[in-house]
């Protein structure tokens, strides 16, 4: 096996504080030392982590969901995904919940495709991407009632060729959707050729650990200074 792989590393942290409390995420400022440099100061988003699901049907199509994303002022094509924002919830359980809530589906077959750090220069977020197959549609009376941006979802089962073309042309820009499409292409090609797929079981350990929770770390900040005195916590 190749030794080309990321390595977890814990530097010497000399100071750590939350400088902004947001409704969902906090901004943490840390001072740390590395062997090659000392006294480094970095601000980062302390993120809950997330899960995403690449859904592939019996025709080899991938499920895409179009959702409005306000920070980029666009309706993006994505795969089902969501935050690890339920305390103590296992990532696989979160993926099952998100698939039911966002796509009204249950899946009988699950595998781990990959773990990904989206913006490691400024955020502790890591996301686990699952492959789900063999679906059951949830009955109308048992479905989650979607609201806010989710109320405007558009759904599309796209052929892999169509999805790959959209990624190559820059027409699908969500990074997890891009990764899901490319990974599904790799998996289906390997399966068709009778080659190992190198997927992992749903209980496989995560490659990297999400940033620690601010509450667990005992971090404090002045709500008046951050403007977050009356903001809800998700």
TrEMBL record:
Domain Nudix hydrolase: 45-180
InterPro entries the UniProt entry points to: NUDIX_hydrolase-like_dom_sf, NUDIX_hydrolase_dom
GO MF term list: ADP-ribose diphosphatase activity
Keyword Iron: no
GO biological process: nucleoside phosphate metabolic process; ribose phosphate metabolic process
SUPFAM superfamilies in the record: Nudix
Compositionally biased tracts (Basic and acidic residues): 200-215
UniProt-annotated stretches for the region Disordered: 194-234
Keywords assigned by UniProt, alphabetized: Hydrolase
EC number of this enzyme: 3.6.1.13
Compositionally biased residues, Low complexity: 216-228
Name the record gives this protein: ADP-ribose pyrophosphatase
Record organism: Brevibacterium antiquum
């Amino acid at each position: 096996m190749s030794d080309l792989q990321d390595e977890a590393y814990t530097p010497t942290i000399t100071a750590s504080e939350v400088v902004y409390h947001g409704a969902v995420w906090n901004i943490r400022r840390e001072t740390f030392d590395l062997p090659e440099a000392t006294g480094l100061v970095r601000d980062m988003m302390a993120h809950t982590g997330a899960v995403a699901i690449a859904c592939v049907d019996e025709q080899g199509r991938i499920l895409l969901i179009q959702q409005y994303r306000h920070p980029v002022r666009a309706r993006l094509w994505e795969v089902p995904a969501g935050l690890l924002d339920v305390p103590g919830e296992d990532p696989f359980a979160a993926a099952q919940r998100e698939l039911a809530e966002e796509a009204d589906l249950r899946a009988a077959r699950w595998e781990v495709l990959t773990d990904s750090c989206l913006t490691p220069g400024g955020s502790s977020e890591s996301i686990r991407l699952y492959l789900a197959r063999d679906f059951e549609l949830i009955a109308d009376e048992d479905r989650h009632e979607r609201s806010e941006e989710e109320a405007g979802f558009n759904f599309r089962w796209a052929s892999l060729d169509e999805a790959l073309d959209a990624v190559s042309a820059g027409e699908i820009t969500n990074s997890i959707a891009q990764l899901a499409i490319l990974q599904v292409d790799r998996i289906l090609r390997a399966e068709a050729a009778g080659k190992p797929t190198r997927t992992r079981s749903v209980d496989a350990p995560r490659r990297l650990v999400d940033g620690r929770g601010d509450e667990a770390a005992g971090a404090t900040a002045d709500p008046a200074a951050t403007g977050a005195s009356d903001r809800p916590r998700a």
